[in-house]
């Protein structure tokens, strides 16, 4: 009997060591991710795989609040093709004891609940049922853990939902091992989150520098173009059988590179960039140089991110029929990222205010993209774009101009 117990304990110890080692290897890989949104997606995915959770979300600290930043839900992914629109909700939760996430952030302790609809009466927090009602989803078991740096700074909260049993058929409570492993993961990814947040801040500072020259090159505009590009690529990739791992890797560089698509405009004179009317042909020729000027900014590095940024800066004004600039590339000669960002950039320009025009109604802009399929735009990407109109609209609401 003792031998059997010893064998069981040894097997558990070996399994613990194996899982801890895998988390350490994962942490090393996560530290190589540049984009904060890609990083949060990967962290949440790995935490869900560790625990068998079918869904989850991450909130990051903003002052005295938690800002909703990422969500995954395997059930809605099957039933709702546009479920990624939930990523772009503007939700903030006070760091207090009245919500589950707020309580976890305030106390800095994990919270494990077997069924959020049948919680103990003496707990101070409540479960917000609004998302379940709107999406026809049923949250049951939940594990919420704080994300804390080695120096004690609260970065945010990760929430895992509905642990599945070994068969995958039934929801069960999260267990103590889940609390330990997810807590270990959360502690080890804090450095990666801090680094990715800093990268995003540096990118937005670069954008602000460009905005001082060209008012259209604003933080909301580049955030929208980055998000549109990610969503178009993701839909196209999934429809074409691209592996989930490759999609994750590709998205990391694509978003940031798409945000930098027009950074070459810093080399163009103010009198042209800020002209309050349409450009003359000679002036437009000068504007066209921003593609090569932007590409030159990334010439000195061979990193994947810099190569993607160079590719997009140089090719996002090329057209599928070969009538674009600066090189007159045609069809599949145009790099994949350039084909995608072309749609994202033109659509956002159409629905935005410019000194020489008012914003187009969204439906008219969608129609324009559809009509330009095969001439200006890559038809496959247009099909992907038009199939996620609800997601595109959600992105616009997430990143409005002038805070509106």
Instruction: Tell how many strands the DSSP assignment holds.
Output: 7
- Going by helix content, strand content and strand pairing, the class is alpha+beta
> Biggest β-sheet: count, sense, barrel?
7 strands, antiparallel
Estimate the strand proportion: 5-15%
State the oligomer. Answer: single chain
Explain the overall architecture.
It contains 17 helices and seven strands. It is of the alpha+beta class and 404 residues long. Strands 1, 2, 3, 4, 5, 6 and 7 form a seven-stranded antiparallel sheet that branches. Strand 1 and strand 2 (65-73) form a beta hairpin. Helix 1 packs parallel to helix 6 (176-188). The protein is elongated, with a radius of gyration of 23 Å. The model has no long low-confidence stretch (mean pLDDT 89).
